[in-house]
Amino acid sequence: MNKYVLCLIMWGFFCFPSMWAQSKYYANSQVWLQKAEACKSPLVYKDHYPIRIVKSIKDEKAYQGWRMEDAGNVSTLFHESLKKHSGIILDFGEHLTGYFSFTLKMLQENIAADAPVRLKFTFAEVPAELNTPFDPYPGSLSRAWLQDEVITLNQVPVQAQIPRRVSFRYLKIDVLGASSFDFTFDKLVMKAQSSVLLQPSVLANTTDPLIQKINNVGLSTLKECMQTVYEDGPKRDRRLWIGDLYLEALANACSFKNHDLTKRCLYLLAALSNDEGLLHATILEEPEPHPQYGQYCLDYALIYNVALLEYVKTTRDLATGNDLWPVVVRQIEMALRQFSPDMIYDMQKPPLYWLVFDWKDGYDRQASMQGLTIWSIQNSYELAKLLGKEKDVSSWLVLIKKMKKAARACFYNKKTGLVESGAERQISYLSQVWMILSETLTQKEGRRALSSVMAMSEACYPGSPYAYHYVLEALLKCNMNKEARELLINYWGNMVEKGADTFWEVFDPKDDFISPYNFYPINSYCHAWSSTPVYFINKYPDVFQSGLK
Amino acid sequence: MNKYVLCLIMWGFFCFPSMWAQSKYYANSQVWLQKAEACKSPLVYKDHYPIRIVKSIKDEKAYQGWRMEDAGNVSTLFHESLKKHSGIILDFGEHLTGYFSFTLKMLQENIAADAPVRLKFTFAEVPAELNTPFDPYPGSLSRAWLQDEVITLNQVPVQAQIPRRVSFRYLKIDVLGASSFDFTFDKLVMKAQSSVLLQPSVLANTTDPLIQKINNVGLSTLKECMQTVYEDGPKRDRRLWIGDLYLEALANACSFKNHDLTKRCLYLLAALSNDEGLLHATILEEPEPHPQYGQYCLDYALIYNVALLEYVKTTRDLATGNDLWPVVVRQIEMALRQFSPDMIYDMQKPPLYWLVFDWKDGYDRQASMQGLTIWSIQNSYELAKLLGKEKDVSSWLVLIKKMKKAARACFYNKKTGLVESGAERQISYLSQVWMILSETLTQKEGRRALSSVMAMSEACYPGSPYAYHYVLEALLKCNMNKEARELLINYWGNMVEKGADTFWEVFDPKDDFISPYNFYPINSYCHAWSSTPVYFINKYPDVFQSGLK
């Protein structure tokens, strides 16, 4: 009779209609948007609970100087005053993405709460994130990405939810304000979400625990990023980028096989191209699907073509291939505008596009872009053949020849066997890689170039797992299987050894604190483009599971 | 077609059934709770908008060292990037209590928000509250009362609400996190609430602008505290205390005349007495009405009787008087247990009750409690007569005589004409006051005592408007109308001159930073017990409006 259940406060976010519409270039873009919505996967939810209490230990040998040590059973959290445990850190045992909610209860009978409480929840992907002051904030991306949330609760008992979606393994809870009464948690739950369900996975052809572990961490990474689109990182950015889509779709095809998600993303990107038909590099879903207007990456636009090819090859969904074929043609037309009459990519020709390729200071992208364009046109031609359209684009074969010839003349140093890029004739891993992937170099030349560059301490080496994906592809193409396996173990395996639950956005084995954003806690520690070991290990079991032949 | 309205995130507070039930002492307590609910006043809502932008100016002459200066038109807020105006202060022109909501919009066309924003809203009653760092927090009450709320908004445009109820005149907005895009407010509204509607009020019998202003500030204070109960302070505590109820009801009877609110509070308190029938000093309404268990103030319990008398006198609601009469009798019985055989209040006799009377360090409450008890019994006898129950309590008349005689013998120094309290024979304003209000001293003796104490620089003077209320009553009782008017002007008028929009919980003209809680920003600057100028000015127009006869 005396029991009330009051819904005291509503926190409502309304999202407004956006100003962006689908592309005016493609007649079907409105239909494409509808198709994208039609194949949106429902999310799968699962409740998770903390598995232990931990404490942060400063340790120079640990990744970024901090490791977590066991500090007791979670039951403490439900039976002792939270005021005595301000700063407590909970370990959920794995990286999770979703919504966190909790209930607080009074600990003493017949005592009423006489004041509000103020709590801070800090959600962290890696241990150092909880041990690095966020303010004053030095980072170059919005401070609001960092996941520290302060809330005031008018009374205890209370049930509450952190309004934003969070992504984390560790949760630190600080009591910033309380009165004399004692309270603690009654419930505490993380409702995790993904468009796929992670199943325990045992590789059939290996007993190597590190390979097994790399595969599992890759699967976790991929699962976390597979939401209603392929997100780049569930903590930060939370949006669809073409580069991530391509690598995620490759890994998905070898694992979760949620092909509808790939299809959705391909349609979204196509529908939201600009009015010249050029793809935007990135799409956000809320309040309604829209591009980050004006954000073009010409390498990504060309990669879209290859992503579509891979999708059609995997699914045999020729209808989608045919539907989106005009986009493929248009990306190549747009890229070719940036080439000089002698078929060399002109870095100075307006508009100056951002070329992603890697997060790496000082890396010259010209040779890489030359190679990537050739690679994209070759793959687009393969798609044309699948769709029976190769006659429409027979000119591409001539073009490819010309571009390769120009590339060899411009970038390839026959004496050293190395590709050199830009006015400074820079020697980088990626310049070799893209000339190999595009088959501008022969396999033999490629092997020589890769062996040389990997032996050069002064060579510009990659800064991100994204770039290392293409290095691995190039090694495999050159039949350098031993080196490919070593790279997988030395790079992704090194992350695992440093404690990665999910693979990181950037990783330089020589610098644990590297950040493209001037502040390593703002890095994404679960990043889509780093999940490709799943693709390599499962696509090439002979190389990565059974070891070397 | 493309327009979505999504409700993204729900912030739900559920309040759980509490463990407290109504008093087991009174057979009707369950019915009393129902009666309290039945006369709950509906709240009146009104939307308010900022009237100007201000900036904080450090000024030693200003109250607490800060004053607000005009800094422009509010339209800036809606047309210029909020990032350029981080730290902006809005002035809503008056003290308001309720819920704050806003909408953010993008400022550039065809730019999508690419990151969340993090904003801090600090709501302040007085200027210094915005200019005193809250952390590290030195106060003795929960830090969570302070009204600084940090929120993360996942996107722009967005509509959001600060989940907690706030109480303020000034609002400071800091941008703690943002990306490169520009955004600002589209709307911004404070939905203010009260159980009464403040109407413009002009006093009929005075042209003195200060008296007029004191009356208006008192009305604003009272309006802000009149919610679904008489709250003590809408910013901090937000609950029903007997002491505040008594003074608020006096002022209400001379102004808003929302007698249902008084009735509701009287019933709530009675229903939630302890199992000996003693009133709890304070009641909270959420999640369901319950006392702050174990919180007794014996002076407040006795004041309840007088509050009921005043209610019955004002409304002639004899039914309620009869209904609650057992509570009146019981409070006196409970108080008498604390008296020595020679009828002196025994400060050492367990249980040791908290006696409020004032916020004032070192003030000895013994003589005051002796006087207040007599005063309460006398008033309770007056209620008995109104209800035709005087024969039931005829013993009280004998009791009153005995207590007065004992009081004079124990506390009254005939030579000096002053009441002295405690082992240290302390001379305080309030010891005189309560011996006057209880008619333990004659009017002539009272006049002598008050004149003397007010001339003594070493006398213990009151620390709060609450205590000064009784000083004013005592002055009027001694026909010291000139002094009463001077006190009103010097004390409450001084607050007005220092910029009060509403009257403050504590005020010492000699110390702007005084705080019972070790941190002046946690003081309540709109406090119920300070609103009694409304009662005095309107109840005694000859004294306070027309000046002196």
From TrEMBL, chains A, B:
Pfam families: Bac_rhamnosid6H (PF17389), Glyco_hydro_78_N (PF21104). Transmembrane segments: none annotated. SUPFAM superfamilies: Six-hairpin glycosidases. Residues 50-192 form the Glycosyl hydrolase family 78 alpha-rhamnosidase N-terminal domain. Keywords: Hydrolase, Signal. GO terms for molecular function: hydrolase activity. It comes from the Bacteria. Residues 1-21 form the signal peptide. Residues 205-538 form the Alpha-L-rhamnosidase six-hairpin glycosidase domain. This is Glycoside hydrolase.
